[in-house]
Amino acid sequence: MEPRSTPARRMPVNVRDVVVHDPFWAPRQEQLRARTLDAQYEQLVATGRLGALALTWTPESDEPKPHPFWESDIAKWLEAASYVLGTHPDPALEAKVDGVIAALAGAQREDGYLNVYFTVVAPGQRFTDLRDAHELYSAGHLIEAGVAHYSSTGRTTLLDVVTRLADLLCDEFGPGGAHHGGYCGHEEVELALVRLYRATGERRYLDLSLTFVDARGTEPHYFDLEQGRRGTPGFFGEMFPQREHRRREFFEYNQSHAPVREQTEAVGHAVRAMYLYCAMADLAAETGDEGLRAACERLWTHLTTRRMYVTGGIGDSRHNEGFTRDHALPNETAYAETCAAIGLVFWARRMASLTGHAAYIEVLERALHNGVIAGVSADGQRFFYENPLASDGTVERADWFDCACCPPNLARLEASLGSYIYATAADAIAVDLFIGSTVTTDVAGSRVVLRQDTSGPSGDRVDLTVAAAAPATWSLLVRAPSWSRSVAVRVNGEVPDGGGAVDENGYVVLRREWADGDTVEVAFDVDVRRVHASTLVAADAGRVALARGPFVYCVEGVDVDVPAHAVLLGEANPQPGATPSGVVPDLTGPAWGESRGQADQDSLYFPERAARAELPLTAVPYYSWNNRGRSTMAVWLREA
Amino acid sequence: MEPRSTPARRMPVNVRDVVVHDPFWAPRQEQLRARTLDAQYEQLVATGRLGALALTWTPESDEPKPHPFWESDIAKWLEAASYVLGTHPDPALEAKVDGVIAALAGAQREDGYLNVYFTVVAPGQRFTDLRDAHELYSAGHLIEAGVAHYSSTGRTTLLDVVTRLADLLCDEFGPGGAHHGGYCGHEEVELALVRLYRATGERRYLDLSLTFVDARGTEPHYFDLEQGRRGTPGFFGEMFPQREHRRREFFEYNQSHAPVREQTEAVGHAVRAMYLYCAMADLAAETGDEGLRAACERLWTHLTTRRMYVTGGIGDSRHNEGFTRDHALPNETAYAETCAAIGLVFWARRMASLTGHAAYIEVLERALHNGVIAGVSADGQRFFYENPLASDGTVERADWFDCACCPPNLARLEASLGSYIYATAADAIAVDLFIGSTVTTDVAGSRVVLRQDTSGPSGDRVDLTVAAAAPATWSLLVRAPSWSRSVAVRVNGEVPDGGGAVDENGYVVLRREWADGDTVEVAFDVDVRRVHASTLVAADAGRVALARGPFVYCVEGVDVDVPAHAVLLGEANPQPGATPSGVVPDLTGPAWGESRGQADQDSLYFPERAARAELPLTAVPYYSWNNRGRSTMAVWLREA
């Protein structure tokens, strides 16, 4: 489906202005605050990341050797912690945050430079390996953290640090700078600079972002030029030998295979791609650049119609942590990095802001409720880096990773969840996600408090209540999710004018004079449904996925007495049952299992098909799998 | 199925004593002689392998740098060429063979050592990296070539070279030798030494083979000891860092994780495993060692009931060119190296010789007709290294490989095919494979010529004709293949005594006084059948493979107007039709295809299932796929 473009630009809502009181999400946020952030802080200490900011590492010291992108892990933790502080006073957390900011300030060089690796390990090599060294990527995360800290707490301690860093980047990479023409192999700084521009109003940050984005993929290729100057392979040189026949593949890996306005397919490392596309959408919104907007829409269509798992996971291959070919969506070997699904959420929100179209929120919701939150265990302390859609029982979450991008990325997304639920325009409030919460915002010149209550995260009913000092005319936009066959709306108990039809952007538009105490009741259809994949997806041929509301389900071997892949659905769908994994119900009902008993162990090939026996099926929400030990798992199921 | 052990040891037949005149195999052998061996010789020249034998490489020279296992490629070519010369005079080929032998003799050191890499590239490092450097592996292939050349031509030019090499190995690795206790990371020399013992009668070669096999996997571990002495990682050190937690995985890679008599599961690099198991079976046969025999039977059962593709391909993972987990048999990413299927043929024949049981021949036949010969294109000039059982259309054969083990390995197997068709015992001839051919052999003290004619390589009728100077009493054993529901035998037109029942070893035993002109007529059932996999194999759940006789079939996208994975079989099996790919018929008939047309391109997920339309199906023998350009392919098919 090609989203129809409209000029209806939306603004995201500040995290601080939303209180989440949803029975599903609020406990997750509380767990994040009370447990996960502490656990991640301990990992930052234990792995040497925070200690490295003292700049005391030497080749002779016993300290762990700093890595070029350690700052990014610190920054994402800081960003998450800042969002938490914006909505929940927590003196202990605040003290940790202040300590980390002070350490970062202490590690910053006089000229604004801030990267421990290139300060103490390879001091002469600053900005010589943009392709592989993640130097600007780390700077970008620091900048995002600085903006988040400022917007959440109003304090400028970290913003001051990162503006000095950003000013250095402007000098070095802006017109006339020593490194003008260069850009980072791992995109991130581009979107961070737009955020910094929005926070400070300083146009030069926006300009530098556009400079980075415009330089990408142009010839002569910067990564060739810098390699020539350097005379050595990059940081990852051994991994990706620069043989001519691999040159294109390598440049696709970091989306520098073509100028961004000419790119038509989502390729390469999935997280990198998402962060680039985020910046392109931001720049299109800020500058009205139609070329960037058109490229974003092309890339979006390609990604979501050819290369996206039903869970919103993206990037099928471990080899490049990214994309391979159209319709290549293997389930057991799906890479579907948690960070990539998070990146898709980031990009989707920006596309929705740019176009006002609900189709983007649909994908955001899919990724958020499935591919993203599968990344963390029920206790908030174990993490998936990869998110397969089937398992032979050998996969489980880990405490932490050498490359620790995913845990703090999850943290910053969950901590900022409030800002994804609503969006505003000059005279409209859009309800994008159905998550119990209260937003305070200005619309049509007056302050409005909109409260949303739901009958659960996959519930069939949403109640909206307006609180306002005085009546005002504005539009309330309620997204009509495609997972509901119908959306029935009542305003103050009455069917509204026009019957609550869905507009071309995918919303029910309720335009009226809204007064204090007005209520809107929204009813959805949340019947269990079967999802079928394109017949071009070999991995899903002859299979269906169970879904209800925004949640995709899976079967775990622990619930059935055959491996998950040997389960077949019967005619009737399983129905909502108990909710052991939280407030989202499991689905239960009769199904079928295939087995030959011991014979299946004693031989591989048989002249006859296996016997089928009825079994009681339990399907659990995909995000909740692997919380009861190792087990086989399957999202895509056969039908009997 | 656990093969029942019997004491009925069989002897293989010399390649020279069998003339293959089968309509399927004879043209393949002729193509090998007339084309493939020349093409491979040219590759040996073009890649520098033959030139390297002049020992003129220096770091400053322009010559390609020799690799430690280049001799193995030369040796396998020599072995194949020798078999050809044994059955088919070819002066041009003989001249090439003699030239290569002379070059090898010239490269041999005075003490018998023969390896170019360790002579000119790393002269001080002889026998210091047995784990990774393939030094003894290459020696083993040279020894096999020497034995093959001698037994096929009666000449000792190459045998003399390799016995001098083997004598050096006895001195170095035998009791009291400087490297006693060592063994090769890539097994091969062990089985080669048994062949050399059988050819020469020199017991010390058998003893050295047993020394190598017995030392394997004992503690202290030789690969630790040599690494300690060397003080540097091995040749592949970077690939397999010797971190403690990877130690076991690394030792499983080369089957040195445990003493061989204690091994219970087929693990690690598949080709290495096969070559080791070959030597174990050979040694069990020569020495009566019950421990080795029991280990072989355990490993066989494990391999064939848990880790073997329906094509006889083995080793599911590219990562280690080998095995991962039980029932892990992914189709699209199947590694199933051509050499591993060949190795399985080698081992199966040895197990059949050791036990007299037809179950081993069953697997041999499966691998030979499917996983092995899929490795070469119809024109004999392009090769698969990996043999997936499904393809998205991106896979195709290549001209040659940097690691060129498979093409000459295929050549030596096809050239020696005659020796796999029959086996003999003191007073018996076993017909193991149904391949048109004539064998000349001694049985029960008299010379017998047995001719086999078939109604095609998957035909329903085999005619055997005895030629003998005088009548003699012996047993004719006709294998009863499990792919035929029935085996009907007539001797001189009459049902024999006992009705031709199948014995516990899987043969119809016809014991009588055989006279010149006696005939045996064997009728098989070659109905097309559907093969079902164990329900523990996730990749094949809900799918069937089509087979007829020993051949497994597949569907190629080029024959249907949907991708191969979108085909569903109907109720009736497709039936033998045209034979465009040779004498083995394609299967044709109505089937179903799933498609949503353009919608499948425009979206990924749908609420409704795709429409099914009847289509005319053509299934081709698996071995013949990818001879008509790139195309999607699937062995395992859904049923409508």
TrEMBL record, chains A, B:
Its EC number is 3.2.1.185. It is an enzyme of class 3 (hydrolase). It comes from the Bacteria. GO terms for molecular function: beta-L-arabinofuranosidase activity. Residues 528-638 form the Non-reducing end beta-L-arabinofuranosidase-like GH127 C-terminal domain. One of its GO terms (biological process) is carbohydrate metabolic process. Residues 17-418 form the Non-reducing end beta-L-arabinofuranosidase-like GH127 catalytic domain. Keywords: Glycosidase, Hydrolase. Residues 429-525 form the Non-reducing end beta-L-arabinofuranosidase-like GH127 middle domain. The keyword Hydrolase applies. InterPro entries: 6-hairpin_glycosidase_sf (IPR008928), Beta-AFase-like (IPR049174), Beta-AFase-like_GH127_C (IPR049049), Beta-AFase-like_GH127_cat (IPR012878), Beta-AFase-like_GH127_middle (IPR049046). The keyword Hydrolase applies. Transmembrane segments: none annotated. This is Non-reducing end beta-L-arabinofuranosidase.
